[in-house]
Amino acid sequence: MLRKIIAGTAVVGSLTLGTAGLAGAATPSPSGNSEGTQLATLCAKLPQVQSLVTQWQSDVSGFVPKVQALESQAKTDGLTKVATVIGNALSRVQNRESKLNARLTKLQARCQSNGSAANS
Question: What is the DSSP letter of 32?
């Protein structure tokens, strides 16, 4: 009796998921204009993004010298593992900053080309 209940539950579950999968596959794909709409939305938020990036960079510029001092102090104290961990964290922050700057530059270029294309 228990086997029949488990088998019935499995069949009902597979049928339920199967029809949900079919319903998901039947939804129409978004039109090509959605990319332009998304870009317009991003470009409208560009000043806010720029201010956030500027604020983050100012925080990082105050943070980096302190962390570098901690790293050098750990090295002079002979705490090489601690210095390595601090150095790795510092490099992650610097890598994140360079990626953020690259993304911001790319977004600015896309918005500028979109604006010049819309104006002409």
Answer: T
